[in-house]
Amino acid sequence: MKGNQELIDTLNSLLAGELTAINQYMVHAEMSEDWGYTRLSENFKKRSITEMKHAERLIERILFLEGTPIVSRLEEICIGAEIPQQVDNDHAKELDTVKDYNEAIVLAGNVLDYATRDMLMEILQDEDRHVDELEELQDQIEQMSLPTFLSTQN
Known about the structure:
- One of its GO terms (biological process) is iron ion transport.
- With about 150 residues, the protein is an all-alpha fold.
- The chain has five helices and no strands.
- The chain has a single domain (about 5-145), classed as Ferritin (Up-down Bundle), CATH 1.20.1260.
- The protein has helices spanning about 5-35, 40-65, 85-110, 115-145, 145-150.
- α3 (about 85-110) packs antiparallel against α4.
């Protein structure tokens, strides 16, 4: 089924964001693991895997719409040198992603591609959950203090 080119371009832009998030989360996961924060590392890895599933769904949809998935493009990857920076960088990335998905959902509706819109709405729910999880981590760091928070992440 030949899809709307503007929507295909938007899906490729979302794909670039997902691929960027995968890389950013995996680096943060490995840094946390290296520092001995196993629970935090698992948290980052779990989020990265969810982003991989999003990328897969976007690729499938782009192909269905007879587009070409662009997997060589990434956005700027923001690696934090310390845990609070990592969480803040990931939170900022997720906020941008939520905005991008909301805009893509409107576009999909405008071009009457409701199947794509529904898929994007499902992914958006995951992204909203990621924002919530990262805000919980930010709150815990603030309320517990960084040393106490980190002592719970072994």
